[in-house]
Design goal:
Helix content is 21%, strand content 46%. The chain is α+β, with helices and mostly antiparallel strands. The chain has a single domain, classed as PCu(A)C copper chaperone (Immunoglobulin-like), CATH 2.60.40.1890. Bound molecules: copper (II) ion (CU).
Length: 168
């Protein structure tokens, strides 16, 4: 009986360890929270992913780049709205001040997957590697949510912008 209890405790502790690892993948200096991507319609050449970065260090860091097997390139874009039209700008790097929390979400900062090799399907997830100047590489899994999730409207002009950017 005692032995059985010990075994159960062991399994619980193991489960907790896996969960803790999933929340802070690879690095404790940078924590990546709530990664998600929006499902893409068939034939889409770009996709967008969102997450929150927390810098747990007392020194600044920088997100320098990212890569994923599901797309040719990964870029960081900021969106600004002028006269009701949204413009996207590629950012070469994203600054993380000491103890900063930086949120990528629809309508502002986002991670752009350029040259999608396959559609992002709701319910699936894909790997994404983030490269930081100090914290190094952090591997995460990005779950895919519904097409148009969390962004009412504004989807069509954004997609148009991305396609134009790709033709350059
Ligand atoms: Cu974009």
């Amino acid at each position: 009986m005692k032995r059985a209890i010990k075994l159960i405790l062991c399994i619980v502790a193991f489960g907790a360890a896996i969960q803790a690892h999933a929340q802070t993948p690879g690095s404790s200096a940078i924590v990546v929270e709530h990664p998600w991507a929006r499902a893409t319609p068939g034939g889409a050449k770009t996709g967008a992913a969102y997450l929150t970065l927390i810098n747990n260090e007392d020194s600044a860091d920088q997100l320098l780049g990212a890569s994923t097997p599901v797309a040719d390139k990964v870029q960081f874009h900021s969106t600004t709205e002028e006269n009701g039209v949204s413009h996207m700008r590629e950012m070469p790097a994203v600054d993380l001040s000491p103890r900063a929390k930086v949120t990528f979400d629809p309508g502002s900062l986002h991670i752009m997957l350029v040259g999608l090799k396959q559609p992002l399907k709701e319910g699936q997830s894909f790997p994404l590697t983030l490269s930081f100047a100090k914290a190094g590489k952090v591997d995460i899994a990005v779950p895919v949510a519904k097409v148009g999730a969390m962004q009412p409207g504004g989807m069509a002009p954004m997609m148009h912008g991305h396609d134009e950017m790709m033709k350059k």
